[in-house]
Design goal:
Helix content of chain A: over 70%
Distance between the termini of chain A: 35 Å
Order of helices and strands of chain A: HEEHHHHHHHHHHH
CATH superfamily of the domain at 94-275 and 283-310 in chain B: MetI-like
Mean pLDDT of chain A: 91
Number of strands of chain A: 2
Shape of chain A: globular
Shape of chain B: globular
Distance between the termini of chain B: 51 Å
Structural class of chain B: mainly alpha
Helix content of chain B: over 70%
Radius of gyration of chain B: 28 Å
CATH superfamily of chain A: MetI-like
CATH architecture of the domain at 94-275 and 283-310 in chain B: Orthogonal Bundle
Strand order of the largest sheet of chain A: 1-2
Low-confidence stretches of chain B: 1-11, 316-321
Structural class of chain A: mainly alpha
CATH class of chain A: Mainly Alpha
Largest interface: A-B, 89 and 91 residues
Number of helices of chain B: 12
Oligomer: heterodimer
Radius of gyration of chain A: 23 Å
Largest sheet of chain B: none
Chain lengths: ~280, ~325
Amino acid sequence: MIDREWIVRKTLFVFAMVAVLGILLIVVLITQQAAPSIAKAGPFQMLFSSNWNPDAGHFGMLIFIVGTFATTLGGLMIGVPLAIGTALFLTQMASKRVAAPVSRVIEILAGIPSIVIGWLGLTMLVPAIRNIFGTNQGSGLLAASLVLGIMIVPTITAIAKDALEAVPAAYRQASIGLGATRWQTIRHVILPAAKNGLIVAVILGMGRAIGETVAVAMVIGPATAFPKSLTSPTHTLTTKIVTDIGEASGMQRSGLFAMALLLLLIAMALILAVRWVARDREFAR
Amino acid sequence: MSTHAGGVKVSGVPAETKSRVPSLDGPTILRREARAKNADKIATAGVSLLAMLGVAILALIIFAILYKGIGTALNPRFIFGKPSAYAAGGGIWPMVVSSFYLAGLALVLVLPLGVGAAIYMAEYAKRGRVSKLVRFGADSLSTVPSIVFGIFGMLVFVTYFSLGYSLLAGALTLAILNMPTVMRVAEESLRAVPDTYREASMGLGATRWHTIKKVILPSAMPGITTGAVLTVGRIIGESAAIIYTVGIFTAKVPWSPLQTGAPMAGNIWYMYTEGAKIPDFGRVASGEAAFLLMVVLALILLARLIAWFFGRHMRGSDRFV
């Protein structure tokens, strides 16, 4: 019996360690694949040059880095007000009978496959932008930001809701008791008290936006060039990888793995940021 | 409120505070109160509007996808039909099979892994370096973009283990991708089981593993089952991680895990990138998108029904415990 307990315990331990080994293996293997191109170009050229021509030994990723950050920023500008507004509505204003269905609906949004949203963006949003702006392109930063803005709403809403619900009821009661209106209470009491949790929500939404691939790929162009306007095609790190990796070989492949490594580093940085912001809370979970 | 308007006396306030509080006359206070109330009304309207906008956008997305594709998607000849690579009028049956096959395979791999790891974390691990390490690993895995999982799977399973583009290679990739979520859901369900259950079982002389098997896992089952159904939904909707591991087009229904598949989500990507060869690729992709959406929504609904059913069942039985 004791023997069996020991075996079970060790087996379960191995299962748990798969999570650790998995991330280690991903980091090591991707770094290994990226190494030749990094050795050739050096990290400085990679990060700050916009000359992407792997056959000639140029691995500048600036176009894609700018694309990723521009679409993410655009997505946050659209998604954060929607999501925080929804979270405030659900926790501070709506009655239970209204809040429950609205929460469900937002959860459903999280379940819609990104390829489906991408297809819809390609067939409806891009033509709509083309009509409104009177251009013949339409795909680009604007379309990608709109798509991302909607896709990050469920992530941010869920975490922001938890953060707002974690504010002790006594704070609100005290504020209302002092004669403050609901909005004054939200602005001066609830939001400051939930600040760390809200920052975590935004960071995780950012992570989702940076990593999103197919939905962005279908509405951003694609083209390996800096965008000339909000409606001209460009690329992000993820969309460049997904469009090129299928037929890439040699140094070009290595360069694409270097982009994946950069995405991994960004993801790690975001995790560390979350842990730092939530260092004395349980929001990180 | 009206007591304010009656005139506030600031004279009783200690000196240091007094200097920061401007003495206000009645009308000023009334004016400020009116302004605050107005701001409250505007903010309430604004916040409600944002929430309604979110819901409206979602409704619009679902409506638009179904509107574009439901005519195609509900036709049995489309769902059960053979796909065609060059001619119009193709169906998606191999893609439907691939999606569910892949989900089943990945679930078989990830469920023991994730639940096992969760049991370790909830029942065995002490709060220490090991559990911190595992949690950091799981957290990191859950933020890795799925395209990175995709090229990792391509590197390891497709190329290194020479599985080629196959359902198995994709399932292995998706098992790692979904492990953190399954683990988190299972751990939450396990931790929600009251400690009295553990104490009662172990007090009767059961070993820890016996207790887990006979008492804790059954009590945590509703949560784990709900999580498993949601995982199936996520796997069926996943595209970036499967494009370069499973494949995106096939005319044959796959029967072996070692065969190339073309799950619906990946096949829509095929229609986008290489569909130009097919005259009616737009119709196929729209129909596939609508069908995929219906499958995923049905799974979300199923998960909720399971949670609701077990919720009632458990609450009912609790009365007798």
